[in-house]
Amino acid sequence: MKTYQRRYSLLVVGALLFLSGCKLMRPVEQASGIKTPPAFADQSDSTGIGSIQWRSFFQDQQLVALIDTALQQNLDLRMAAQRIEQARTNILIAQGAMLPAVTGEISGGGRKFGDYTMDGVGNYDTNFSDNIDADRRLPAPFLPDYFVGLRSSWEIDIWGKLKTQKKAAYTRFLASEKARQAIVTGLIAQIASSYYELIALDAELNIIRKNIILQQSAVETVKIQKEGGRANELGVRQLTAQLLNTQSLEFEIQQKITETENNLNLLLGRFPQPIARGTAQQQTFPQTVVTGIPANMLKRRPDIQQAQLDLLANYSEQQAAQLAFLPSLNITAFLGFNAFKSNLLFSPGSIAYNALGGLVGPLVNRKALKAGQKRSEAASLEALYAYNKSVLNGFQEVSTSLKKIENTKRINDFKTQEVEVLQQAVATSKDLFLTGYASYLEVITAQRSVLEAELNLTEVQKQQFLGLIELYRSLGGGWE
Q1: Model pLDDT for residues 306-362, shown as the tens digit of each residue
Q2: Does the domain made of 101-156+329-360 have the CATH classification 3.40.50.720?
Q3: Architecture (CATH level 2) of domain 26-98+157-326+366-474
Q4: What are phi and psi of 111, to 5 degrees?
Q5: pTM for the structure as a whole
Q6: Residue ranges per structural domain of the chain
Q7: In what order do the strands lie in the sheet with 101-112?
Q8: 353-412: per-residue pLDDT in tens?
Q9: Which of 184, 219, 326, 436 could potentially form a cystine with 479 if both were Cys, beta carbons 3.0 to 4.6 Å apart?
Q10: Topology agreement, domain 26-98+157-326+366-474 and domain 101-156+329-360
């Protein structure tokens, strides 16, 4: 009867464990990501500029050489490589958790049992037995214990918890590689932007120096006019003040060039030095820009891919946190030499071994497991929102860059015409001033206007290149 009751109890416990296991083994429902539009604005081509290799996208060989240097020496990339190695070790840790752990042990100790305890009385009485020889007599009153051997522990992954944790570690490793790729895309875009910034500053410096020569000529002219009685000291001073202001702009631009070069050298992982570069006239700008379909952007942008992998990793960790409520099957064993006398430790009779297996599961006070489950659920939702945000951010960047390229192209056409008109106005004002039909104020105004217009045109041309670089980066280009 007792045997039947024991079997019945075991059957009930086993059934409860099975039912709870079936409930917890149900897959965790993963919320779906954001739905993306089928195309960017009016563009529907399947292949965009993001698929172009960066060596082909950038035609300036001096810029290509700078990017090559940065990919070899940039410190952010080197740190990212070490983060990848850290993520790789997490895979090894997860793999190790699925295998038996075997440790070697050499230990020694002892104990004195109380005289009025079961062990104390038993040990005392044993020494009077006729069935034991001198080697088996227990030392008294202090009982030593020596052990040399191997101990092993192994958690059998019957529910797939450890496998799920390994999957999460591997997914995070892939995410760390995508993070490095995102740094590469950002680095290439940053170097190209700084390079075009330098080229634009060079162009501004040439414009300022050209205007300095023009304004110096105007000052000399007004001085001659003053000596001939056709101008006064006020005109000389105002034209001279304009010249001094333009000369100060030259040094402001030189300082900006130094700062930009130093920032670029920092990206290249080297100390400050001059940056070899081309001219604005040598740079090319494509007439048409193709973005491709959004699906390609989602596949190519490393930050979006990283967010997606983080989402999958959190999903796996959420499953592992749920499986932690199930009993775990643990096996422990040892094999070695065990004796209470050191001179008998390695004798054949001292060989000892043990093996024990059992199911261990949480029953009471599972708050820590419940907290871990809630934390993993919150982390999974956070990862989903981060993924959705990265997709929205990608679309926003592509849309903004497209409009920037389109609008700056139109602005460039108007600014080019403005500069041509103002250059003609400067020449006309100078001729009229020499013949007495225009005042020096009109000459100053014309010169100031053409300087501002030429600098604005240079800025617009720079923004065209920066917009193209940003679009290339936004479409996931540059990480190969």
Answers
A1: 999 999 999 999 999 999 999 999 999 999 999 999 999 999 999 999 999 999 888
A2: no
A3: Up-down Bundle (1.20)
A4: -155, 145
A5: 0.84
A6: 26-98+157-326+366-474, 101-156+329-360
A7: 101-112, 142-156, 328-339, 351-360
A8: 999 999 988 888 899 999 999 999 999 999 999 999 999 999 999 999 999 999 999 999
A9: 184
A10: no
